[in-house]
Amino acid sequence: MDENAVGPLATSIEDFNSVFIRLPSQGQLSFSSLSVLHTLSRRGPSRLSDLVESEQIKQPALTAAAAKLERDGLITRHPDPADGRATLISLSSAGAAIVAQRRKGRVERLEQLVARLTSAEQAQLLSIGPVLDEVVRLSHTATLEEEE
């Protein structure tokens, strides 16, 4: 594939992400903390070491963020049933409510923007979801293959 074709797509995705992920702040939560909540909502219980990798922040910063999230009642810690020495972090019901509220806000904002497109643009945009899902799936598969 030609980089001249993919480069503009990468720029479009970066620009879209900049608009899409930035919603009004949620109390005193940092972007990193919100990202952890969203990751836990998608992945389920995770080890801190797995979150360090996915969130792309250093262990001390993630440890501090997790401690604040736990103090705020947004995550819980419990022993990993597969390894009693390890701890899993899970989303609490309060954390899940924040994620749901942010998703609702994103959907509402996206609906407003999509409504301003032509019917053809709306159809084109709405049809791209399965393709993006496949790119994400391929990304996870490639990551797993690299780890082996």
From TrEMBL:
Pfam families attached here? MarR (PF01047)
Q: Where is the HTH marR-type domain?
A: 1-134
UniProt cross-references to Gene3D superfamilies, sorted A to Z: Winged helix-like DNA-binding domain superfamily/Winged helix DNA-binding domain
The residue ranges crossing the membrane are none
SMART domains listed in its UniProt record = HTH_MARR (SM00347)
Q: Which GO terms describe its molecular function?
A: DNA-binding transcription factor activity
Recorded coiled-coil stretches: none
User: Which superkingdom heads the taxonomic lineage of this protein's source?
Assistant: Bacteria
- Descriptive protein name: MarR family transcriptional regulator
What is the species of this protein?
Tessaracoccus antarcticus
Q: What is the lineage of its organism?
A: Bacteria, Bacillati, Actinomycetota, Actinomycetes, Propionibacteriales
